[in-house]
Specification:
77% helix, 2 domains, 9 helices, Arc Repressor Mutant, subunit A, 191 residues, 0% strand, elongated, Rna Polymerase Sigma Factor, Chain: A
C-alpha cells in the first residue's frame, strides 16, 4: 500500500494510475464516512466516486496540505453535507451543521494521531544517544542534571543532544503540520 506522500506525487505525475490506487486504498473509508452522515449506501458510493472524479479532474490545481486520507475524508464530508443541504433545504440545517462540527473534531483527532505517529517515527530515527536523552527529557520529565547523572555524561552534552534532536525533529515534522501551533510546545521546551 503506497504512502500518502507517494500517492500525492504520483497524482501529479501519473493521475490515472494514482486515482486507481487511491480508489483501492481509500474508497471504503470514503463510503463509510459518507454513510455515517447520510445513512444511504447508494448515495455514499456516488459521493465517494464524485470526490475521486473531482480529484482526478482537478489534480493539477488541487493543493493537498494535509495527509491524503484526511483530505479525502474532509472532501467526502463536505460533499455529503452539500448533498443533504440540497436535498433537504434548510429544514435540517441545524442537524447538518451539528454533524459537520462532530466530523471536524473527528478529522482533527485523526490528524493529531497521524502527526503523533509521524513524530514518534521521527524520534526513532535519531541517533541512539540523542534519542535516549530526548526521550528522558521530554517524555520522562527528567531534568538535564538528572539525565546527565543517569547516563554518566555532562549537562552540556545533554543540552547539546537535546538541541540536536530538536533541530532534527523541526526539520522532519514541520513540513507535515497543517496547524503549526499544535505541537509548538514540544519544540519550545527549554534545553
Amino acid at each position: 500500500m503506497p504512502l500518502d506522500d507517494e500517492l500525492k506525487q504520483l497524482l501529479a505525475q501519473r493521475p490515472d494510475q494514482a486515482i486507481k490506487q487511491i480508489f483501492h486504498q481509500y474508497y471504503p473509508m470514503m463510503v463509510g464516512t459518507s454513510f455515517n452522515i447520510c445513512q444511504k449506501e447508494d448515495v455514499s458510493k456516488d459521493i465517494a466516486q464524485e470526490v475521486l472524479l473531482k480529484l482526478w479532474e482537478n489534480h493539477q490545481t488541487i493543493s493537498i496540505n494535509s495527509s491524503l486520507k484526511n483530505y479525502l475524508k474532509r472532501a467526502t464530508i463536505n460533499h455529503t453535507i452539500n448533498y443533504l443541504k440540497s436535498k433537504h433545504g434548510n429544514k435540517n440545517y441545524e442537524e447538518v451543521d451539528r454533524l459537520n462540527i462532530l466530523d471536524e473534531q473527528t478529522l482533527q483527532k485523526l490528524e493529531a494521531e497521524d502527526l503523533e505517529a509521524f513524530i514518534r517515527e521521527s524520534i526513532s530515527e535519531l541517533p541512539e544517544r540523542c534519542r535516549i536523552v530526548f526521550t528522558l527529557s521530554r517524555f520522562e520529565d527528567l531534568s538535564n542534571k538528572e539525565i546527565a547523572e543517569q547516563l554518566g555524561i555532562s549537562v552540556k552534552t545533554v543540552e547539546s543532544q537535546i538541541t540536536k534532536a530538536l533541530k532534527f525533529l523541526r526539520k522532519q515534522v514541520l513540513p507535515h503540520i497543517r496547524h503549526g501551533m499544535f505541537i509548538f510546545s514540544l519544540f519550545q521546551w527549554p534545553v
